[in-house]
Amino acid sequence: MSVALSLRGAARDIDWPVWIAGALALTLVLLALLAPWIAPFDPDRQSLLTRLRPPIGFDRADPRFLLGTDQLGRDLLSRCLHGLRLSLFLALFGTVTGLVIGTLLGMVAALGGRIADALVMGLVDVKLSLPFTLVALVVIAVAGSSIPVLILVLGIAYWAHFARLVRAQIMALRALPYVEAARSAGASGWRMAVVHMLPNIASPVVVMTTLNFSNLILLESALSFLGLGVQPPTATLGSMVGQGRDYMASAPWIVAAPGLLIVITSLAVMLLGDHLRDRLDVRLRDR
């Protein structure tokens, strides 16, 4: 009896949404990593004889294509796996690019004096005031739509958020006793930032990184939907939705499969980001 009660109590204490989100995120990452080996077909292989076949369970379904085929007869399951792989790759490296740029500029603003602070924060204000779609159009029109360019475009999407966060955190830490002690011992400003300050602002930066990763997945999907992302026939989740929008009335599965993957991926990462914020923020943890 006591064992059953303890098991029930443990089950109540488990944060099921976080565990489910973690399991989903791990599953999606594994599917993306193993896509070249588990995809049943070449994602770009066309077969007009099998075009617009519905998923298994519907009339005219072909058992070889579990999720059906698109307007060119390409296997949707294979394209979803490869599209998930590329979408996660772009979001990951875009997040890292924005993190590096924003952290460096935030440190410059906090430690470089009034002129450096005014210049960096002015640049941040300009960035936040410009419509990002317009910036993306200009960059892609000038530099093309290759994968490195897309990583740069995604990286500059949210660097200003990192810069403002790092600047605010470092300026709050500058007056603390251990920072004053390091300064009195002769440590330079940049040494204090790298050795003493950055480790203490890791928690909010990690939380913002996870949340921005989810935002970049949606942003990459939106750019690909508008035709500004990776060009056909290479698949990303957003480009698959964009290419299938003309067939939503007659073949809704073309949009439903990649669209559902976008929703699941974004939701899983957002839930994990919220959980990290609750765990790492002392003020929320003590409530």
Automatic annotation (TrEMBL):
<dbReference type="InterPro" id="IPR025966">
    <property type="entry name" value="OppC_N"/>
</dbReference>
<feature type="transmembrane region" description="Helical">
    <location>
        <begin position="250"/>
        <end position="273"/>
    </location>
</feature>
<dbReference type="InterPro" id="IPR035906">
    <property type="entry name" value="MetI-like_sf"/>
</dbReference>
<dbReference type="Pfam" id="PF12911">
    <property type="entry name" value="OppC_N"/>
</dbReference>
<protein>
    <submittedName>
        <fullName>ABC transporter permease</fullName>
    </submittedName>
</protein>
<dbReference type="GO" id="GO:0005886">
    <property type="term" value="C:plasma membrane"/>
</dbReference>
<keyword id="KW-0813">Transport</keyword>
<feature type="transmembrane region" description="Helical">
    <location>
        <begin position="88"/>
        <end position="112"/>
    </location>
</feature>
<feature type="transmembrane region" description="Helical">
    <location>
        <begin position="201"/>
        <end position="230"/>
    </location>
</feature>
<comment type="similarity">
    <text>Belongs to the binding-protein-dependent transport system permease family.</text>
</comment>
<dbReference type="Pfam" id="PF00528">
    <property type="entry name" value="BPD_transp_1"/>
</dbReference>
<dbReference type="InterPro" id="IPR050366">
    <property type="entry name" value="BP-dependent_transpt_permease"/>
</dbReference>
<keyword id="KW-1003">Cell membrane</keyword>
<dbReference type="InterPro" id="IPR000515">
    <property type="entry name" value="MetI-like"/>
</dbReference>
<dbReference type="GO" id="GO:0055085">
    <property type="term" value="P:transmembrane transport"/>
</dbReference>
<keyword id="KW-1133">Transmembrane helix</keyword>
<feature type="transmembrane region" description="Helical">
    <location>
        <begin position="132"/>
        <end position="160"/>
    </location>
</feature>
<feature type="domain" description="ABC transmembrane type-1">
    <location>
        <begin position="84"/>
        <end position="273"/>
    </location>
</feature>
<keyword id="KW-0812">Transmembrane</keyword>
<keyword id="KW-0472">Membrane</keyword>
<feature type="transmembrane region" description="Helical">
    <location>
        <begin position="16"/>
        <end position="39"/>
    </location>
</feature>
